[in-house]
Amino acid sequence: MHQESTRPPVRVGVIGVGKMGLSHLSIARALQNVDLVGIVDATDYLLDVLHKYTGVTTFSSLEKLLDQARPDAVIIATPTGSHAELVRSALERGVHVFCEKPLTLSADESVELARLADARGLVAQVGYHNRFIATFQEVKRLLEAGAIGRVRHVLAEAYGPVVLKPKGSTWRSRRNTGGGCLYDYAAHPSTSSIGTWATPSPCAVPRSTASSLPISTMRSIRRSAMRTT
Q: CA distances (Å), 8 to each of 11, 69, 139, in order?
């Protein structure tokens, strides 16, 4: 017989309600064990519309959300260039964090945040959702079982219009806000490949889930991105 959990719901705030933020918002509202306590965004009109049709309390800054709504955890879905400051602020207040990928535009900053989360005993996860898709998990299981022998070469590709557009540009394509294709798009196939085909050395203490790329790999990706964006 199924018994309902007596644990209180997790109080969650969503920071940034653009394309990915709206997706996280809809998922959070659908979860029975989540209490959505606030939304943060810099666009007043958007906050007004969301409050009108969802009834969720809105805030103009992370600090106001943390002070007034007191969430247990936050989902950060803002442009990448703002991640480091927002993640650090939440962790320093003892709040768990789920952050959209990539974590930051700096390997050193990412490692610092991973260590901060571990030191505070907090969950800090980056949105590399492909690692949790059954297809990738099954491939990893077959590889570990030796089903196809030793893998020596992997080709990983990702396509989409959100970084490179025929005309104009977005924050995703700029180095200081999104990092370009290598950071914003290649982050998925690269981390999926590493997580599936190889076992990387950790970039920080194991308990933190903020990142699992080796420091050397993160720095190499950063240098490549600076040359190509």
A: 9, 16, 36
Size (the chain), residues: 229
pLDDT of residue 199: 53
CA nearest 200: which of 183, 181, 184, 220? 220
Residue 74's DSSP bridge partners are 13, 97
Contact between residue 217 and residue 174 where contact means Cβ atoms under 8 Å apart: no
| Domains of the chain, each with CATH number or no CATH | 10-126 (3.40.50.720), 130-203+212-228 (no CATH)
**Phi, psi for residue 132 in degrees, rounded to 5:** -100, 0
Q: How confident is the model at residue 115 (pLDDT cuts 50, 70, 90)?
A: very high
Asked whether residue 128 carries a pLDDT value surpassing 90, the answer given is no
- Could you tell me which of 72, 79, 197, 65 has the C-alpha nearest to residue 130? 197
Distance CA 210, CA 111 (A): 8
